[in-house]
Amino acid sequence: MPGSQDVSREDLLALIAELRSVNVALQTRVAEQDARVVEQDARIAAQEARIAAQDARIAQLERALSRNSGNSSMPPSSDDLPGRRTPPRRDGKGGQRGKRPGAPGSGLAWRVPDEAVAHRPEGVCGCGADLGDAADAGVARSHQVHEIPLTTAKVVQHDLHAVVCGCGRRHVAARPGDVADAPVSYGPSLRALVVYLLVFQHLPVERCARLVADVTGATPSTGFVHGLLSTAAAAVGDVVALVRTLVTAAFVVGFDETTLRVGPAGMKRYVLSASTDRHTLYWLGGRDKTSFADFGILPAVTGIAVHDRYALYDHPDLTGKLSGHQICCAHLLRDLTDAAEANPDHHWPAQADRALRDLIRAAHAARDRGQPAVPTQVADPLIAQFRQAVRFGLSQIQRAPGPAATTKQPPGRLLLECLRDRQDDVLRFVTDTRIPPTNNRSERDLRPLKTQQKISGRLTSETTTRHRLTLRSYISTAAKHGTDAMTALRDALTGNPWSPPHATV
Question: In sequence order, which residues have a C-beta less than 8 Å from that of residue 263 and are 6 or more positions away?
Fold first, then answer.
């Protein structure tokens, strides 16, 4: 063919070989790229898994930091810790300092004086006459001052005289009951003051001894001060045993617990409490079934137990005699606040919170009017709103798949299941106004123990801590009956301890 150029067989073979080589190189490059893509996919998947784990960890840490006294059972003192967010204040709470609307007021009232001191004008009148010779025109105005006298310990010597009868027999006067059988001793008022400062005002032993010395001039040793705890606890032991009996017989008993650092190593223990409106009882142990059983109150109570959602308060071995439960609504309201913060796009927490608070207010109003229960026309619409909120929440927060006992559930899910499954225990206060809707009374009874720990730090002796709790049980119960701590302690140390009325449960 004209103009064509013959291609040799060798050239074709070389071209084919070259194309094959290029194809192999391309296939190798494609394989390398595929391997690189697989490696990148694996790296991306690992990064996504790590990011997801970090996101979960961050959410967990943010949730932990968001916990405060307004959305959990943490004490208000923890709100001041670094990184904590102070809970928002609700209307009618917090705000300006001072007396709350409706709270009873107090102030210095004019009274019949114990002493009157006359003050008369002195000096010279403008006319030059001495005012000491002027006619008395009566009292122009008066000012009353409430003052205490400077206290100084005085030594009273009790001389026990002897007499000899005409028959020859010798008789010695009996030692007064409030005088110790020792040549020199401290009197019951000073000893009561020491115990009061240790147990009621939470002073450490050395500071207590120093305060007594500064105020009274007496100089008790720290050993004497510390030893009074066991002496006073023994003096009130029978009264506290009676308090235990009265608590178990009460119609409503509130239960709570708090941590306390005890022992040389500062081991964390728990103080368990059982409270009524007239009695208080404390016990040092743990937050376990054995301690609850050793405390002995919960298994013996036949009335209503008011408590939070801690599982042991529902254990069948501990609560078999109870006639019912009232789950603390203050804890539930904090849990609803937490659920609202964890699910900001959900409306059910606010609705449940609003309905529950309205029911609590209605119960207080019914109790003030002497009604045995919240009227049905008031309670029924609020209970319907509460149930509706719970049902809607259950539809929005689904249970996480997996074994119920081990699978962590989304925030709010377990709360909703409790509100659904235990509605009678949540709203029992609506049907009987003798039952308080919250366990605030028990929390208030436990609060002084946290004050003790903050002032004195850990308590070095478990035995002495038990003595303190025995005395706190005695003092708190006496206070609920209108007897001040100093009087109750002095009576105990003179062998005549105050005792609650047996019929009051």
Answer: 269, 458, 459, 460, 461, 462
Residues 451 and 457: their CA atoms lie apart, in Å, by 9
The residue extents of the domains of the chain are 329-398+409-438
Q: What is the pLDDT of residue 239?
A: 96
Percentage, residues of the chain above pLDDT 90: 55
Q: With bands split at pLDDT 50, 70 and 90, how would you rate the model's confidence at 411?
A: confident
List Cβ neighbours of 351 (8 Å cut-off, separation of 6 or more).
385, 386, 388, 389, 392
- How does DSSP assign 83-141, residue by residue? TPPPPPPPTTSSSSSSPPTTSPP--------S--------SB-TTS-BGGGSPP-----
b/e code 47-71 from CB counts within 10 Å (16+ = b): eeeeeeeeeeeeeeeeeeebbbbbb
Q: Are strands 267-275 and 252-262 parallel, antiparallel or unpaired?
A: antiparallel
Band the pLDDT of 98: cuts 50, 70, 90: low
Distance CA 387, CA 467 (A): 47
Of the candidates 351, 327, 356, 355, which has an alpha carbon nearest to the alpha carbon of residue 340?
351
Report residue 452 as tokens.
Answer: 């003790």
Answer yes or no: are the C-beta atoms of 144 and 110 closer than 8 Å.
yes
Rounded Cα gap, residues 357 and 365, in angstroms: 12
- Strand spans (E) along 263-335: 267-275, 280-285, 304-307, 324-327
Cα→Cα distances 416→352, 357, 422, Å: 10, 17, 10
Chain centroid to Cα 300, Å, comes to: 24
203: number of Cβ within 10 Å: 21
| Axis-axis angle for helices 188-195, 485-493 (nearest 10) | 130
Which ranges of 288-347 would DSSP assign to H, the alpha helix?
Answer: 289-295, 329-342
Closest CA to 458 of 204, 248, 272, 155: 204
Average pLDDT over every residue of 260-287: 90
Cβ atoms 454, 77 nearer than 8 A? yes
CA atoms of 342 and 62, how far apart (whole Å): 10
**What is the rounded average pLDDT of the residues 255-262?**
90
Please tell me the predicted confidence (pLDDT) of residue 409.
86
Partner residues linked to 172 by β-bridges: 162
What would the DSSP string read from start to end of 127-193? Answer: TS-BGGGSPP------------PPP----------EEE-TTS-EEEPPPPTTS-SSSS---HHHHHH
